[in-house]
Amino acid sequence: MNPESAIETEVAPPAGLNHPSPKAVLRELHGVPVNGLNDSYLYKVDAAEFSRLDLHNAMFSASLGGLFPAPAREDIQQALMICNDGPIPAVLDIGTGSGAWCIDMAKAFPNSHVVGMDLVPVKASSVPPSNCHFEVGNADTDLAKMYAPESFNLIHVRSVVQGVKDLHSLFQNVWRMLRPGGVFLAMDGRLTTWDEERQEILYKEEGQPGFSWFRKMIYHMLEVTKVSTPNCFLVPVAPFNIRIQARNPSADLMHRITECLRGMGDDVWEKVDRFNLYLPVGNFDSPIMSPGERLGGKLFTENMSRLPDSIRPMLLSGDLTPEEIDRLTSGLREELKEPRIKQFSLFIYTWSVKK
Question: Using CA atoms, how far apart are residues 59 and 52, in angstroms rounded to an integer?
């Protein structure tokens, strides 16, 4: 099959909605199916990937001890309180993946209506409760068409910025869709690593002391997705010293969501706050880790061992050959079992409350 040929499948509109669900389009890229709506998010679409996304959700739930960071719980619970004279609380998960977070939220808040939106139809590993459903859409192009103003009390975005080209539009749409007092909860990672003193570990080439296969994988992910980045609401952004391909102008801003939201103006959010989560890269222990971080780290290690298969279409869209990807995968998996250095990944949670 031609790598760019499309496989189209119809998605029935969920009951009770006043808009049609877009047609789901898959295409084949380098011999595997990927979404056909977005050329920045080049992950596989298959059963193995949905299973990895379930693991991705479990890793964060274990690390946080719940569905969101403890410092944000009061704001979120307040936003989802039922008012006698108000609409039913509603939750939107943009880039829902396997739908696991949505299903967990629907069970935890049975009096709320939970919607998960993704680029492809969700293949959930468990039956969603009646207050949860899924839709197909592109966060870059479909939010304004799919959702009316002040429709949601909580909007959740996790690990999707690399697939969003226009963060300014995304954040404006989120603000538009939130009800007054509603919460926007966003999480994305910093694509580098840190030592036990929380100092950034410099990237090293293969053969140099401190070389890491994990960092090499991140290097190639950035090489494929990143371009020179415009400022986000006048936030200065330092360029990466790597060769780049013009695929996503927002890739540099994955770790700057807090600054971007604060930069929207004083009359937009009641508050903007941040929580940092560090997870170990590989099977090692450290006295600075909490029990939740230790458990989350084990799940993170398993997740990372599967990631090279998930992003193979992305890596092949760069300069790597299949043989080089196989070597990278093998090196990463060995490193995760027996790490040469202790390094941590940083995941940044930002939440804001609409005025």
Answer: 10
Domains defined along the chain, listed by start? 6-354 (3.40.50.150)
Vertex 296: Cα angle to 293 and 301 (nearest 5): 120
Rounded distance between C-alpha atoms, residue 53 and residue 155, angstroms? 19
pLDDT tens track for 172-196: 999 999 999 999 999 998 889 999 9
CB 257 within 8 A of CB 188: yes
- How many other CB atoms are there within 10 angstroms of residue 239's CB atom? 11
Alpha helices by DSSP H, listed for the chain, are: 47-64, 73-79, 100-108, 143-146, 167-177, 213-225, 257-262, 291-310, 312-316, 322-337
Among residues of the chain, what percentage have pLDDT more than 90? Answer: 71
Report residue 275: phi and psi, to 5°.
-135, 130
Whether 348 contacts 257, CB under 8 Å: yes
Q: Is 251 within 8 Å of 227 (Cβ atoms)?
A: yes
Total-model pTM? 0.87
Q: Which residue has the tokens 């909860």?
A: 185
Alpha-carbon dihedral of residues 57, 59, 60, 64, nearest 10 degrees?
Answer: 140
According to DSSP, the β-strands at 269-280 and 344-354 are: antiparallel
Tens-place pLDDT, residues 334-354 = 999 999 999 999 999 999 999
